[in-house]
Amino acid sequence: EAQVTQNPRYLITVTGKKLTVTCSQNMNHEYMSWYRQDPGLGLRQIYYSMNVEVTDKGDVPEGYKVSRKEKRNFPLILESPSPNQTSLYFCASRSGLAGDTQYFGPGTRLTVL
Amino acid sequence: GESVGLHLPTLSVQEGDNSIINCAYSNSASDYFIWYKQESGKGPQFIIDIRSNMDKRQGQRVTVLLNKTVKHLSLQIAATQPGDSAVYFCAEKDSSYKLIFGSGTRLLVRP
C-alpha cells in the first residue's frame, strides 16, 4: 500500500529538549515536504526536499532542520523546541517538483511545554 | 502576497443534499488546483484536481469547477453522506511548483 508514515503520532515535550519526527514514504517519490497546521492558518510549509541531499526552506523554517540522506526518509528536527512550535505536523510526498498528487502522512501532534 | 482563501469556514447540509464548497485564489499564474479532504485525526486526503486549461472535472460524486475569469474554484459533492463530514481544503500550485493551501471549510452533514 502506497503511504507516508510518521512517528511519533503524539509527542509532549519540554522547552529545549531536542526531538526528531521521522517521515518515510514507500512510493519512490523525489519530492518531500513538511507542513505545520495551526487553527485559522491552514497548512504552512516548513521545509521541502527535491531529492536526496537537496533541501530548501519553505515559508516557516525558523527553529526547524531537516535532512534527506535517503530517498524514502525525511526527518524533521527541532534542536531546541519552544512552545510556539506546538502544532500538528504533516509530512508529504509527491513524484517530483512538478508532480501532481501529493500524499500526506497521518500527522504528528506536538506539544511543547 | 499570493493567497488561497475560502468564503465560508463552516457549511452545514442535510444528508442527501448537494454540497458546494467555494475557494478564491489570487495567483493568476497558478496552473493546477487540488481539493483535499481532512477527517478528524487524519492527514489531508486527495479528492480531485483540475488543470487551468479545464473548466470542469468530475469524479465519483464530486465535481470541481474552475472559473479563471474570477479566480474561483468550487467543489460540489452530490448526495452528501455522513462520511463526507470533514474539513475541505483547496490548494493551488504556482509557477514555482509550490502548493499553497487555503485555511479550510468544515462540512457538517445533518442526519
Would you mind describing this structure in some detail?
The complex is a heterodimer of chains A (113) and B (111). Chain A contains no helices and eleven strands. With 113 residues, chain A is an all-beta fold. In chain A, the strands form two sheets. In chain A, strands 2, 4, 5, 6, 9, 10 and 11 form a seven-stranded mixed beta sheet that branches. A four-stranded antiparallel beta sheet of chain A has the order 1-3-8-7, with no helix packed on it. In chain A, a hairpin with an 8-residue loop joins strand 9 (87-94) and strand 10 (103-104). The relative contact order of chain A is 0.33. Chain B has 111 residues and is mostly beta strands. Chain B has no helices and eleven strands. Chain B is globular. Residues 1-8 of chain B have low confidence and may be disordered. The chains are: A mainly beta (113), B mainly beta (111). The interface between A and B is medium-sized, with 19 and 18 residues.
What profile does the largest beta sheet of chain B have? 6 strands, mixed
- Contiguous low-pLDDT stretches of chain B (5 residues minimum) are 1-8
Radius of gyration of chain A equals 13 Å
Annotation, overall tally of beta strands of chain A: 11
Number of strands of chain B: 11
Distance between the termini of chain A: 36 Å
Structural class computed from helices and strand pairing of chain B:
mainly beta
